[in-house]
Amino acid sequence: MDFQLTEEQKLIKESVRDWFARNLPLERVREMDTKGHPYPQDIPKGLGELGVIMGTVPKEHGGQGLDWFTQTLIAEEIGYADPTIACAAAFMAVATGWGYTLDKYCSEEVREMAIKPALKGEKFVGIATTEPGGGSDVAAFKSTAEKDGDEWVLNGEKTFISGVEEAREWGGGYWVNVRTGEPPEDAPHKNMTSFFVPIDAEGLEPDKPYRDAGRNALSTGGFRMENVRIPDSYRLGEEGKGFYRTMEGFDNARLLIGASSVGVTQRILEEGMKYIKERKTFGKPLAKYEGIQFELVELYREMEATRLMTYKTAWMQDKRYQDGSFKPKDVAKWISMIKWKAPHLALEAANKAMHWLGAAGYSDEYMFEMAWRGVMSYCVGAEGGENIQKIVIGRELLGPDYVPYK
Amino acid sequence: MIKVDQEKCTTCGICVDICPVSAIEISEGVISIDRGSCTLCGVCVSVCPVNAISIKRKAKTEDTSGYKNVWVFTEVASGTLKPVVFELLGKGRELADKLDQKLCAVIIGSGADKFIDELGAYGAELIYMVDDPIYENYSTDAYTSAISQLITEFKPNIFLYGATHVGRDLAPSVASNLGLGLTADCTDLSIEEEDNLLLQTRPAFGGNVMADIICPNTRPQMATVRPNVMEPLAPDENREYEVIERKISIPSRSVRTKILETISGREEHEVGVEEGDCVISGGRGMGSADKFEVLDELAGLLSGVVGCSRPIVELGWIPKSRQVGQSGKTVSPRLYIACGISGAIQHQVGIRNSDIIIAINKDPKAPIFDIADFGVVGDLHQIIPRLIDRLKKR
Amino acid sequence: MNFIVCVKQVPDTTEVEVDRESGTIIREGVPSILNPFDEFALNEAIRVKEKTGGRITVLSMGPPQAQEALRKCLAIGADEAILLTDQAFAGSDTWATSFTLARAVEKLGKYDLIFCGQQATDGDTAQVGPELARQLNIPQMTYVESIEEIDDGSVICKKETDGGYQRVKSGLPALLAFISTPAFEPKIPSIMEVMGAKSKTLSQWGIDDLGDEDGDYGLDGSPTQVIRVYSPPQRGEGVIIEEPPEVAVDKLIEYLESEGII
Lengths: 406, 394, 262
Description:
The complex is a heterotrimer. By secondary structure, chain A is an alpha+beta fold. Helices cover 54% and strands 14% of the residues of chain A.
């Protein structure tokens, strides 16, 4: 085991950190969070030039052929730079986690049309799986696709989708899961198929975006599909195997959002430390009080533990893709652990830091409250909520007989 | 060890004419150097048009005992002596007295003789003068040659230069030419009791540490000294001095750089920020370029000069020559007033040696307050005009 | 044209913290960076090379880990890098450093321009550039802000003086020591460039590669000796007031009087 980063990894981290310090300092993050979506496109275009969006996509498809470990380091830096997690959500979890998986299963036509522009930050690609009736509960899926000659006709409704407004403005489209047949009663995940659906497809009607609690620079919305016709070449992977492709996409997105959350925690602790060393009460800096110092120390310990878990998970994910020495199920357990742990830790760090600062921490004078609102999105649900992660971990620990949904 | 590359040599004879000790001659169509009389001053090396002569030096002076006196380099700018010259003479006086040696000024220029009275009044006992039109404007090549030659001939013990743009260009060139040690940007100098060595003190690591440096084996012991740190003597026209003039002519073609244009960044005789005894700097908090007028007014009342932080230069409000900080000027005034400057560490590095730092900023968290002796949290647009009124009434 | 850029890896002095109790520097965890003045020089070299064509060789002296800084230079756009690293070079002052660099430049052979940073932010001596120029017997221009014109035989620079600027012309080869401009934004290497740097040549040279074993290398070859390093006297705790303007100005006047300024 080698815990040393390579020269390249160190340089990439440095480049990402420098790029964000120049182009997206905390003041701008605050401005963007206050102003709200759509996300300013100079950021993804710059990130595209830097080569960090979909860095894991193979070179021959226009990506950088990075390993997941390096992509994880990048995601961590992006969480550090933008602790509202809007940037990491848009361009790591969604555009990269899902984009990579999309690229893996899409046709050359979709790649040229969507992937290549998206990794340059010119278009937006995302994931649309949740429906008004259910998200994680795949049995509740209602959207359908029917084959008509060489085309598919899609109907249904998708909601709580990241980046709908951005996709409309910049162009792009979504990974959309639909039923292509009735599933067997005991296997609701079967007969699900994934498609790429361009945002400007005829019959696709976006809803008004939601007003979210946090990560406001990135829109969340939904769309309805009424007889949306797309060619068969837009299908992602085999017919009826959409569930497995989707799980793979989740794995990649969850890994990156876990890493970004570690970055958020790092930033919160750094900014918090600055404050508690400066601010004095009763003649002493806050940092001297054990009530505060020990909270900081505990959070720090948890952060380092979570970072190690994240790095190990990224390393396993590389093995899974490189030589198959870890099976998707082996990795999924670890991914669920960090997806559960890392955003909650960031939330806790923000919560504690806000307490250290008191009223100032609750105000927009400091970054803590926007981090707190932002990372909450990944605690409550985005890319699968806490309980779904527990089900995955429990299933791997106890075996499939003990899953709660059977 | 001096060597002539006979393959490159065209026997043009320039070096023969220039050699101050007549150690070079052409015999039977080849250049030969008499190692016995050669002083390794390096003048021939810099004048050779084909780079045929080279000197490989060892940084070691064989016998240091013959080296005496404290020398000060006299820098002239826009027709006047730089203030740092008087400061060097003040410090040099102290060092020379301690060593019981003479304090000497070295002046090189065109029409240099007009400054010698002033140098004498400020404490120079002996003035070495080199006067020639070639020295009208400073050039590394001509000045390095002339000084190297003076050093070789007169063997000073200590040689001080101002840590100005010219001093920091010239001193290392001379040091390298003669294989000498050199300490940069000293803020204090003294003589060690035991061995009479020059103890050179300078900040390093962005001003976070101080280092004491000696130079035991090469002579002269050379240092550049930060302006505005040392105290000049009060001038006294009755002080006696002696002038030694040397004719060192250097062919113009051996000056390998040519000044095409000089663009003045300040009015004539205007004091630079690094020279001001009171520096009043404005930062982004000033709001706009015209607001700097109040700083000018305040500077007028406090006999100060106006400087600024880096963002102000970026905005083009004030020329870069007035920028204070790591990438600008390092200042050490008696009083530094930072107005609307947040005080990034790069700025702090440039002002740490100020005696007193006053900061006015509306952000109580601004890092400038970390190093301020007196900090006012408040709106500078309200505070400074009131301060000006109060000072005017006095 | 052949360009040599001399760089140094330095501790990020802006990240240095001083232990308030003992007054000593906390060196632990201080990141190493490419000296900002050298980074400017390298960016300028790349800008010039885009016009003239040619090759940029980066030269540095330092411990083996300084290789990271050189890799960054390659990612930014240098073509080749050489790290002079040897126990024998340790403890070099500016003379010994310039002596060592000069041997390496001679070994590299033909070159047109040497780019240096005016100074390094750790030592702040600004001496290595001029000392190197004199060792190589080439003309020097210090405090350079930009190269305005360059052709096969000469270069015209804009350089800062104490009182403003000068435009100066010099024949080639020459050495230029660069300051930085306030608006300078160093190039941030992309992932493609970082990965591309992997395949560029980065060599390490020791004393055996430079020859002249009796030369002025390292501590023994350094005429100056650091005999003591200590922390500067700490500034006393300042007084910070937050009062209405009238009261604040009263107190400020009082302070200026008490310090004998007015």
